Amino acid sequence: MTAPRAPVELRSFPRPDLPSGSALLRTERSEVCGTDVHLWHGRLAGVPYPIIPGHVSAGVIDAARGPLTGIDGAPIREGDRVVFFDVHRTCGRCRACTVHRTPTRCAARRVYGITDSADEGLFGGWAQAIYLEPGVALARLPERVALDDYIGGGCGLLTAVHIAERADIRLGDAVVVQGTGAVGLCAIALAKLAGASMVVAIGAPFDRLALATRMGADVAIDIRMIPPAERLDMVNTVTNGEGADVVIEAAGAADAISEGLDLLRVGGRYVIAGHYTDVGDSTINAHRQINRKHLEIRGCWGSEPRHFLRALSVLEKHPEIPFRMIGAKTYGLAELNEALADAEAMRIPKALVDPFA
């Protein structure tokens, strides 16, 4: 991806030299997610174009230099199916890392496929190989987990693990999820696993709402067909007039914020995860919608290594959840411009990338 709005180009790169503690991953699958569309639109600041996009990927260790150990302590060898955490180079020493314990805001933080320039090498998943530098968090993909299961969940699943943690979902909670993209669909599944007795999905189009039901939603509301006042009535009806205990914003729309606050019960919890880029201001009434209702509002920015490892555990222990269905279509490297166009137009929840297709 040479620049915003420019067509994705195919380029050849030299095979990298491997320092001690590094590896070369033969890429089997990567993804085209909403962040990649934002990158293509030029809506993220500080992106060092040209880049190789694809920040969540999976593959096989093609070559390794020295012993490698997974984040769970297990040894990793050449030939192993491996996944890795895309965030790297957090310093562990700054105020964000040590005092505030928010490493997702570390100023030194780098992210494969987003903040690593292609001029530095193979730092993205839309390629036949990925350079795994020393210190990157690795894990063997559990035997029971197929590549398409992992990438179907992808970054949306890692974010959803963080969302569930921030939302503090409790047994019997009523949860509303705004947005039925990859993050919202994964959040629906994890809300159910966390103990929610009622999960309401608000989104579009119809096929995503159908998948939301398969992921665990008890009620699916089409935002294109049902106006806000009726959506509020529907949520109040299924919560005995109380409103939701938890609302999760995974839509990335400015108008979603005001509606989300209205959908909450007194003392409810709101987690905002979808505003990864600036989509404009939201209009709220602080007295009526927040203070008088005594709400908790929490942001959720990215994910951390613990969310990565827990996502693998969810995939291994819950094969009944159809994460692979989020990845609706697979594209080769020569088809990436088509994949971006399909993702932009919301024709599919997520595009998968097979670099050898």
What does this structure look like?
This protein is of the alpha/beta class and 357 residues long. It has helices at residues 34-41, 95-98, 147-167, 182-193, 206-215, 228-238, 254-263, 286-291, 305-317, 336-344; strands at residues 23-32, 58-64, 68-69, 75-76, 81-84, 87-88, 110-111, 129-132, 138-140, 174-178, 198-203, 219-222, 244-249, 264-272, 296-299, 327-331, 350-353. Helix 3 packs across helix 9 (305-317). 47% of the residues are buried. The mean pLDDT is 96.
Question: In brief, what are we looking at here?
Answer:
The protein is α/β, with parallel strands linked by helices. 29% of the residues lie in helices and 22% in strands. It starts with 22 loop residues before the first strand and ends with a strand.
Set out the fold topology.
Blueprint: E1 23-32, H1 34-41, E2 58-64, E3 68-69, E4 75-76, E5 81-84, E6 87-88, H2 95-98, E7 110-111, E8 129-132, E9 138-140, H3 147-167, E10 174-178, H4 182-193, E11 198-203, H5 206-215, E12 219-222, H6 228-238, E13 244-249, H7 254-263, E14 264-272, H8 286-291, E15 296-299, H9 305-317, E16 327-331, H10 336-344, E17 350-353
Parallel strand pairs: 10-11, 10-13, 11-12, 13-14, 14-15, 16-17
Antiparallel strand pairs: 1-2, 1-8, 1-17, 2-5, 3-4, 5-9, 6-7
Helix pairs in contact: 3-4, 3-9, 4-5
